[in-house]
Amino acid sequence: MTFDTVPGWGFDEEGRSVLGPTHGGVVIDKAGNIYTSARIGVIVFSPDGKVVRRFLGDEYSNIHDMEIRDEADGEFIYGARNANAEGIKFNAVTGEIVLKLPFPKESGLNLKKFNPTAITVAPNGDIILADGYASNHIFKFDKNGKYLKHFGKKGNGLKEFNTAHGMTLDTRYDPPRLLICDRNHKPKGRLLHYDLDGNFMDVVITGLGMPTSASIQGEFVSVPDLHGRLVILDKSNTIMAVLGHNSDPKTRVNFNVPQDKWREGIFSGTHGSYWDKDGNLYVQDWNVSGRLMKLVRVK
User: Fold this and answer.
1) CA count, 13 A, side-chain hemisphere, 234
2) Residue 18 gets which letter from DSSP?
3) Which phi and psi (to 5°) does residue 116 adopt?
4) CA-derived radius of gyration, the chain
């Protein structure tokens, strides 16, 4: 699990990031194009770092977490928009928004805030949306957006979440299950397994810093940590590698590190990641200038 960085990947002709502030995720489509979400919207890159399309404006801004899914009528991006209190689904090529998921009043909950931070999709199309910046309930909808149920609550207990910040479908197991990043659990951040009906299964690993999201490829899972590193686990959930570790307390967990202060191969606040088909990693920092890094797997 050794990687080389690709200096300047995704920069413009002047050597600057094209993203602006980033606080989002990364996904890759079947053609190998890389989608990353930023404050201004979603920017799509080719594998060599050229911008191929953009989805900008109020409807696509501030997507905190993304998943991509190949469906019968095309590939679709699912997004959790914490600042806009909704989940969305849109066509990955055209940008057409085909579904919105506002707070489900049918749940009977009287929430004063709804700030979704994570989204994933079950094999049957059910959509799971985590309200990680507010109630810490996790909501389940069918593929058409009909509310089905919710589970979890805020706290530091075994079956409670203290910022259910990230979530993905853990396909390392059969049947697949939810892998949830409990970012601020005390005393240390942890990963949890829940089944797709919202039943607690087990604690996957604890002792992490602030795990923000998770991405699966084969038997491996990459877990960005806001403390400025990315952890890779194998199927036994043993740590295989720690990438980009930032030993400087002034620049880790720090949004305000401008591009001219970036250090090659050293992260400041990793927030999103995704594997391509060749096992390379794309990693996004929570960052004022907008940082997306390509890490090439060394064979």
Assistant:
1) 6
2) S
3) -65, 135
4) 18
- CA 163, 63, 119, 242 dihedral sign is negative
**Cα(58)–Cα(268) distance, rounded to whole angstroms?**
27
Q: Is the pLDDT of residue 299 over 90?
A: no
93, burial (CB in 10 Å: exposed 0-12, middle 13-18, buried 19+): middle
Are 291 and 22 in contact by the 8 Å Cβ rule? The answer is yes
CA distance 182 to 246: 21
Distance in angstroms (rounded) separating the CA atoms of residues 261 and 263: 6
Distance CA 36, CA 9 (A): 13
Pairing of strands 65-71, 291-297: unpaired
pTM: 0.97
DSSP secondary-structure letter at 77?
E
Q: Supply φ then ψ for residue 258, to 5 degrees.
A: -70, 165
Residue 213: per-residue pLDDT: 98
Contacts of 248 (CB under 8 A, 6+ apart): none
